[in-house]
Amino acid sequence: MTKRIYFASPLFTEMEQSYNTHVVSKIRQAFAERIEIYLPQENAAINDKSNYADSIQIADGDNAYLEKADILIAILDGVTIDAGVASEIGYFYSMNKPIIGVYSDIRQGAGANKAKIEALDVIAESPFSYINLYTVGLVKKRGNVVRNSDELIEEIKALL
């Protein structure tokens, strides 16, 4: 049976679109006929930003795909989690379906470094990344957070 995946990620810069295309291509290659993946940036009807789609069209367009999806992949990277991605997580969470978060920030996992721990007490010197814990909690209540696209592939495999 084919599983439907919704790939929630920021999509407004060349860097974001290139990353999304790279990861989704990797997923499509790994799972070929076993999955259908919706990448919002490929939906020109609402995401060709040279045209105009209003808020209702965007919400209805993406919600239709979220409602059909079996799995949500949510990219959590950035200074903060993208507002649209956070909204998609909340909407999908309410459907009680699996969510996989990808948080690839390289500043995580250095808690054993004494100098970095001490820097937490110095104003404006935190060497660690920050991520909204409420949104992460929603992801973890429905699935898992992984560090990179290779771990993402393994997590998808476990859900198929």
Overview of this structure, please?
With 160 residues, the chain is α/β, with parallel strands linked by helices. The protein has helices at 14-31, 44-47, 55-68, 83-93, 114-119, 133-142, 149-159, and strands spanning 3-8, 35-38, 71-75, 99-102, 143-146. The protein has a single domain, classed as Rossmann fold. Helix content is 46%, strand content 14%. Helix 4 packs parallel to helix 6 (133-142). The chain starts with a strand and ends with a helix. The model has no long low-confidence stretch (mean pLDDT 92).
In short:
The chain has one domain: Rossmann fold. 46% of the residues lie in helices and 14% in strands. It has 7 helices and 5 strands.
Draw up the topology in text.
Elements: E1 3-8, H1 14-31, E2 35-38, H2 44-47, H3 55-68, E3 71-75, H4 83-93, E4 99-102, H5 114-119, H6 133-142, E5 143-146, H7 149-159
Parallel strand pairs: 1-2, 1-3, 3-4, 4-5
Strand content: 5-15%
Q: Total domains, how many?
A: 1
Ends: how far apart? 9 Å
Major β-sheet, in short?
5 strands, parallel
List the total number of helices: 7
Please give the CATH architecture. Answer: 3-Layer(aba) Sandwich
Structural class: alpha/beta
Overall average residue pLDDT = 92
Q: What name is given to the CATH topology?
A: Rossmann fold
- Uncertain runs are none
Strand order of the largest sheet: 2-1-3-4-5
The strand count comes to: 5
What's the SSE pattern? EHEHHEHEHHEH
